[in-house]
Amino acid sequence: MVLFFSATGNTEFVARRCADLLGDECVDLLPKIKAGDFSEIHSEKPFIICTPIYVCEIPRFLRRFLKKISLTGNRNAYFIFTSGGYSGIAEAQAGPLCHRMKLRYMGGSNIVMPQNYIATKLYEMPSEDQIRGTLKSAVEKIPHTVETIRTGGKLKHRHIFLIEFLAIIPVAPFWSKFVMTAKRFYAKDSCVGCGKCSSVCPLNNISISNGKPVWGKSCTHCMACIENCPKDSIEYGKISEGKLRYNFRKYRSIVENGGTTEKK
Length: 264
Description:
The protein is of the alpha/beta class. Helices cover 36% and strands 19% of the residues. It has helices at residues 10-22, 30-35, 60-68, 90-100, 128-150, 162-179, 196-200, 224-228, 252-256, and strands spanning 2-4, 26-28, 41-43, 47-52, 71-73, 76-83, 104-112, 185-187, 206-209, 212-215, 234-236. A 5-stranded parallel β-sheet has the order 2-1-4-6-7, sandwiched between helices. A two-stranded parallel sheet has the order 3-5. A two-stranded antiparallel sheet has the order 8-11.
């Protein structure tokens, strides 16, 4: 069974493509995460957990959720990470997490997908050509990962160097607490109060008041609100102004038609 959390569609695409190739069931964890539903999920086939990478880690809220959920049946578990190019220490976190969940860790694979972190000045959002190239490469890699899972093999992850742990472990908590805040999010006058942002927030951090979204104190910078807004009405201070909004659904034609059609 394939389990996934996805904010802007990248991880969902990878998860559903894997499930299709394996003829397996695919479960979106977002409703369970929002509801705090830790009820049993049973599978006779190996569990495949698909997750994005936040601050070079498996998202903290997702780790907390997985530690509490009950997975029964098959005890083998694979992790598939989706990142903008670097999966950080996620592979090292997956093994202990599986142990905590009483699962046998069968390795992890990183699928590079288009960058979607719009709330930073550290790097620019990818161009249309870069998005196309990244998606085509991802489509080519997924079947190889799936074949290893199908045959019961172990996914081989890259070696994580000590300097990576020394850099990421102290920085990630600081970044999560002091940088990944919702203070700069706001809705422009073009907002129609549809509530999409609230419905996709995994931390239930967005409410609708007087027809406009209001952000609370909890935020994981998943970018679900800003990248899923149908009117492109959400901004993150001045950082996001004028930047391309990425959502996989806009580029579905690239993977469905070999990249020969325009984005939808």
